[in-house]
Design goal:
The complex is a heterodimer. By secondary structure, chain A is of the alpha/beta class. Chain A contains 19 helices and 16 strands. Helices cover 36% and strands 16% of the residues of chain A. In chain B, 52% of the residues are buried. The chains are: A alpha/beta, B alpha/beta. The interface between A and B is large, with 42 and 43 residues. The structure holds flavin-adenine dinucleotide (FAD) (2 copies), iron/sulfur cluster (2 copies) and FE2/S2 (inorganic) cluster (FES).
């Protein structure tokens, strides 16, 4: 009996259904999505591998606690519409999360089968369910709630803000989203490239929020166009701040302002938000390089490197001061980048940039590193090897070594408590800040994290905002105004 | 959508004035601040200083020189047409106070940016000496407007077709010798601002310059607008665009402004082809 189970398990493990992808040779020069999605047959086959665990650990790995075995079982039974409804109970943006969550450290990392190296492809299945619903035009139409008469202002239209909007709408509150850029979506539109997350998917999600009554005001910088105080004066009963962590960090080494050295934020914003990869059909120019260097090894670095490859670079190198094991990017992105010909120069740190007479970058001096004792993060600290300096030629450098808290809003808002690094201090359970009636969540509280964590924070904040607003509605409180 | 309610051409059509509906921005804007405009879906985000605002009408006025693809596209917009996007007010307002006698120096496009600052300094009660210059007479604009907000106005052209034959710096030199200036404001080509800052430094005259690095978001998110001021990187869109001229690394700014020159030329050519077809 046990032997039989063992055998059956072996079968299951072997067959993790790979998602078909564009071939590396072809995709490294186009901007179309790389993974092509499961067919229904593939999805059913993958869903069939799930053990339907009694106490499913996978759920613990999902910050919004999707009932993973339940939706997988529904896929296995080919009840695709019901599967997506099951997911919608917990996650408003499954087409996005299925594509961009770091599943290996979240749901899939906690799947029972992960120990054997073959976890269920939960992300792929979530994406499948979401995409088939999208194709059919299936919508998450919960019955329209009684209007509460309360209005909430949401600052920032990234995943945190979008989630707060959806959850509050579903509870009958009116919401207005204020966005500084000319398109809503936050990092989902300005940061993550088309080949990883088609912008059409984000636009669909935003549109469905609008269908449900959300007002979205782009080109509105809170702290400049309108201040927080003025939002209250305009009659909003609560404000949620989800402005992200969009302050680019630089290396602070000599030569960093040479022409041809830019932040990943600038590079990706040009490419994605401004569609500069379609220059000159679109008006914004894109810096091009033959020999491109990307500093850093997170998702942002992979996105930059793969964008540079698609724009026709001869060589693209990721330079990272730690080893492969510490690279923070999603496993799939590292793998994709490698397949597309991105090279990795690990245990290497830049020391200065070299320029020509016209101030254009022509090279970079680096030093080799070795791993020493573990640091505060538990990762082994890279230390330079004296005398190991060497130069590499490059004509475009993209700096993707992390971001900080953008002070534009926080600096212009009195009484908002910030931590030492400039992030907003908010209650982790409720999102409440030091100002009465103001909540915050997402990257502006935690520092850069993930899409699903920002959504989780949005969900908790929405719950807390709702409680406060309905408490205020109790007849015991006066309703004069 | 932001409709153009008034449109004027100046300097033989090289400079355009647009008064645009943007009530939220008009309500808030202060002299020295700018907006970012985008004409249509495919357009670039272009930073322009507000020359004027009318909170009651809910409009802002920009004056821009036609220099490349996007400003050419802006020029093609007629009264009644609209900009798709307008965001602002961005940047720090000019610090306007009564300090005594000030010189306001503008070259080329810089005059558009200089004008509202000059007006603000005049209204604050300063004695204002203004010096504006252009390559030739028919490239000059806002002369009458500048005269109206200045106690004295000098005009220069490189070819002598109007006013002083020569550069604004030559006039400023004289003014520096004859007057006790409390402040110099310089807006124009980077080289001009650099030269002026070098002239005022030994005399210890405080000098404010308004920088125009390449910008994208205008909210401190991309770092494209970073300029070296006093050895430190500052973002012109949030910390500026005005800085202490004695502390700005102008050479670096000049190089960084040239970053997209070949692409911009390509873009402009492609644009002309589209227009001609
Ligand atoms: C290139 C890149 C790739 C990434 N890849 C992944 C991935 O694969 N998987 C993953 O899980 N995570 C990824 N992340 C991280 C993830 O995108 C973020 O953690 C998440 O988007 C944070 O969401 P948010 O809602 O807090 O803020 P954001 O998505 O940053 O949105 C904030 C929004 O607020 C707006 N805003 C800012 N200031 C103001 C203001 N004053 N007034 C009005 N609006 C304002 C901004 O313009 C922006 O649109 C990536 C990030 C980047 C940059
Ligand atoms: C804060 C600020 C305020 C400004 N105010 C005014 C104004 O009131 N009136 C006015 O005539 N001009 C102003 N400018 C300059 C104006 O933004 C540029 O002339 C315009 O962007 C040129 O675009 P183009 O496509 O027509 O020309 P292009 O062909 O793109 O370029 C022509 C020149 O403009 C520079 N440039 C290109 N794109 C940008 C950009 N996004 N930001 C800044 N410079 C750029 C290029 O380096 C080049 O030297 C201002 C710039 C800044 C940063
Ligand atoms: S939302 Fe993300 S973490 Fe949760 S199940 Fe889906 S892919 Fe996994
Ligand atoms: S832990 Fe893995 S196998 Fe178990 S229910 Fe979750 S997805 Fe299925
Ligand atoms: S324009 Fe992007 S940071 Fe200033």
């Amino acid at each position: 009996m046990a032997e039989n189970e063992d055998l059956a398990e072996k079968e299951r493990e072997k067959n993790r259904v790979a998602m078909p992808e564009q071939e590396p040779e072809e995709r490294r020069r186009n901007f179309e999505e790389v993974p092509l999605g499961y067919t229904p047959e593939m999805a059913v086959a993958e869903a069939s591998r799930c053990l339907q665990c009694k106490s499913p650990t996978c759920i613990e790995g999902c910050p919004v606690e999707i009932d993973i075995p339940a939706f997988i079982r529904l896929i296995k039974e080919e009840k695709f519409d019901e599967a997506i409804r099951k997911i919608w109970e917990k996650n408003r943006l499954p087409a996005i999360c299925g594509r961009v969550c770091p599943q290996e450290t979240q749901c899939e990392g906690r799947c029972l089968l992960a120990k054997k190296g073959r976890p269920i492809a939960i992300g792929n299945l979530e994406r499948f369910a979401a995409d088939s619903a999208r194709e059919k035009g299936l919508k998450d139409l919960s019955p329209k709630p009684e209007p509460s008469g309360k209005r909430v202002a949401i600052v920032g239209s990234g995943p945190a803000g979008l989630t707060v909007a959806a959850d509050l709408l579903a509870r009958g509150h009116q919401v207005t989203i204020f966005e500084a850029l000319h398109k809503p979506g936050g990092v989902l539109v300005y940061g993550i490239p088309e080949f990883r997350l088609p912008k059409e998917i984000v636009a669909d999600e935003v549109e469905s929020l609008e269908d449900q009554g959300a007002e979205i005001r782009c080109n509105t910088v809170i702290g400049r166009t309108i201040t927080m105080d003025e939002l209250f004066e305009e009659g909003y009963d609560a404000i949620f701040i989800g402005v992200g962590a969009g302050l680019p960090r630089f290396m602070n080494i000599p030569g960093e302002n040479l022409v041809g050295i830019l932040s990943a934020n600038e590079y990706l914003t040009r490419a994605n938000l401004m569609k500069a990869y379609q220059f000159p059909e679109y008006d914004t120019p894109m810096p091009k390089g033959k020999n491109v260097v990307v500093l850093g090894a997170g998702n942002v670095a992979m996105d930059s490197a793969r964008t540079a490859m698609r724009l026709g670079a001869d060589s693209v190198r990721i330079v990272y001061r730690r080893s492969r094991y510490e690279m923070p990017a999603r496993a799939a992105e590292i793998h994709h980048a490698e397949e597309e010909g991105v090279e990795f120069l690990l245990l290497t740190n830049p020391t200065r940039f070299l320029g020509d007479d016209e101030g254009r970058v022509v090279g970079m001096e680096c030093i080799r590193m070795e791993l020493g004792e573990p640091d505060a993060s538990g990762r082994r600290r890279p230390v330079p090897i004296q005398g190991s300096e060497f130069e590499i030629p490059c004509d475009l450098v993209i700096i993707a070594v992390g971001t900080g808290a953008n002070p534009l809003l926080t600096r212009s808002t009195d009484g908002l408590e910030l931590n030492r690094r400039g992030y907003i201090v908010a209650d982790p359970e409720t999102g409440e800040t030091s100002i009465e009636g103001v909540w915050a969540g997402g990257d502006i509280v935690t520092g850069s994290a993930t899409v699903i964590e920002a959504m989780g924070a949005g969900r908790r904040a929405a719950r807390s905002i709702h409680e406060r607003l309905t408490r205020d509605l109790q007849p015991s409180k006066s309703v004069e105004d | 959508m932001h409709q153009i309610v008034r449109r004027e051409e100046m300097a033989n059509g090289n400079v355009i004035l647009n008064e645009i509906e943007a009530p939220y921005i008009a309500r808030k804007a202060k002299p020295g601040q700018f907006v970012i405009l985008k004409a249509d879906e495919r357009g670039e985000r272009i930073p322009l200083t507000m020359a004027d605002t009318d909170p009651e009408r809910g409009t802002i006025t920009v004056i821009y020189k036609v220099v490349g693809k996007s400003t050419e596209l802006f020029k093609s917009l007629k009264e009644g047409d609209s900009y798709q996007d307008a965001v602002g007010p961005l940047g720090q307002p000019t610090h306007l106070e009564k300090v005594g006698t000030v010189a306001c120096v503008g070259g080329g496009t810089g005059i558009a940016v200089l004008y509202p600052i000059t007006r603000g300094l005049k209204r604050a009660g300063n004695r204002v000496i203004s010096i504006i210059g252009a390559r030739t007479a028919d490239r000059l604009f806002l002369e009458e407007e500048m005269r109206a907000v200045s106690d004295e106005l000098f005009v220069c052209t490189d070819d002598g077709s109007r006013g002083h034959h020569g550069f604004v710096t030559e006039i400023l030199k004289k003014v520096l010798e004859e007057e006790t200036l409390s402040l110099v404001v310089a807006v124009g080509p980077v080289l001009m601002m650099k030269l002026i800052s070098e002239m005022t430094r030994p005399r210890g005259v405080k000098t404010i310059v308004s920088l125009n690095p390449i910008m994208i978001d205008g909210t401190g998110m991309c770092g494209g607008c970073r300029v070296l001021v006093d050895g430190e990187n500052r973002f012109a869109c949030v910390d500026g665009p005005e800085f202490d001229g004695h502390k700005v690394d102008f050479d670096q700014l000049m190089q960084r402004l040239g970053a997209y020159q070949s692409e911009e030329r390509k873009s402009s050519e492609a644009h002309r082809c589209r227009l001609e077809r």
